[in-house]
Amino acid sequence: MTKTTMQKLGIIAGNGSLPWALMAECQKQGRPFCVVALKGHTNPDLIPADTPVKWIRLGAVGQGFNEMKKQGVKEVVLIGGVRRPSLKELCPDLQGLKFFAKIGIKALGDDGLLRCVINEIETEGFKVVGIDDIMPSLLAPKGVLGKHHPSEIDQADIIRGFDVAKVLGSADVGQAAIVQQGLVLAVEGIEGTAALIKRTKTLKRSGDGGVLVKVSKPQQERRIDLPTIGPNTIQDIYDANFKGVAVEAGSVLIAECEQTIQLANKLGIFIVGV
Prior knowledge:
CATH superfamily of the largest domain: LpxI C-terminal catalytic domain
Number of helices: 10
Structural class: alpha/beta
Number of strands: 13
CATH topology of the largest domain: Cytidine Deaminase, domain 2
Largest sheet: 6 strands, mixed
Order of helices and strands: EHEEHEHHHEHEHEEHEEHEEHE
Shape: elongated
Strand order of the largest sheet: 6-13-11-9-7-8
Number of domains: 2
């Protein structure tokens, strides 16, 4: 795809560094883009000064669509974390109210909600694409990343963690589990991975080990909400005195990959793609 044929990309940006990485990639490719930034979620410091940006409330669905149409957007990426708010916090506009009335009980589960979000965006004439369609290098490769390797006990914990996390994901609950010496210490719920690690710190058994296992759901909608790790994940694992992280290769994103591996090397944490 040449510069003259690249379709303008609309980036609906949540928190974290991935929206910034996508903006940098678009600039590198010479691809035109604009940003719809979510108040209270998107980090304003990570948006380049010359970037067309529209700040909206999460519930201001109509404003977001109107801005992207005004900007001539054809394709849309939803990237970055978004804390799920209450309906009161959303304060949806008219189009938002119609959307929530339409999806009803599907909003109670992540998978149903995300598919409804994609359908609503595409009904407006946009094409939703995944971040890995544009930046496949963000996907975790297979094998050990960095200089630290899991032991045989860690490998057994990884297998156990994958089994548990996949069952968890199939129920549309979470995407991660922490296992130590064959014991499932905790599984991820609505709180997210960072909070999972922090609350599991007090559950750690004496002795070695402790692995965070993060996978995609069996029914994963790959265009939105691919599981992600990054430098903060590694720091949290270290602070909790756990030993490493295992991710599903090809299905988990690594934000700031080089920095993530460097930090893991420094702190003695292993990272492995399985």
